[in-house]
TrEMBL record:
SUPFAM superfamilies: Invertebrate chitin-binding proteins. The lineage of its organism: Eukaryota, Metazoa, Ecdysozoa, Arthropoda, Hexapoda. Pfam families: CBM_14. GO terms for molecular function: chitin binding. It comes from the Eukaryota. This is Peritrophin-44 like protein.
Amino acid sequence: MYIFVYFAALFVVSCNAVFPVLDSATIKVDPVCKRRNQYVSIDGNCDSYIECRDYHAIDRECPDGLHYNVDAKWPQYPCGYPSDVPCRGRGIQKAPEPTADCPHQFGFFPSPLAQPNDCGHYRMCVGGRALEMYCPTGLAFSPDTGRCDWPENVPSCKISSFLGYECPPATYDEEGYPIITNHKYGNNCYAFYMCESGKARLLSCDPGFAFDEVSGHCVDEDLVPCHLKVEEAIPL
């Protein structure tokens, strides 16, 4: 009985208690925070920014090797790789934190395994630890962009040696545009070389299609005699 009376009295007191309402009138608002929760850029800075939490400004830094994305909306993660988040004229960056294998803690970098005739190697650094990676078949790693790209866009890559194919001399139409030609990839029924301006790209047909050497196009796979399984034949 006494216990019931005690909790009943406590309930009455709680119901009549006055609790403060947290709003912009009662919270100390930092002048830089125009909204309760948001990110704020620091002029000229690539990797530092301000995070506003309940109108309180907190100085933040992206991990070494990542850039602050000025288009990020709170609460999404605001840091990204330079290939996805260019500095766009912001020149100030914090000093790098290199390790024995990585120039930055995070990012994509050239691998010592890469050669002019084997351009697909690169390193992915995570927390200063290097992981050896390889681009999808037919693509080369570009040190300039930190991405896998077509070999003709990577000056250090020797295309003919890398892809194992030398395109015929370039031909052009009456208006001066290069004529694109397609060529069979070895004994593979599903992949082919596309040649434009004397430079090759290794491509593959869409599922359900195979490369027809006569027409130089991908056609219904039932129309192309092929003794290879699809998973064995497609290199990409």
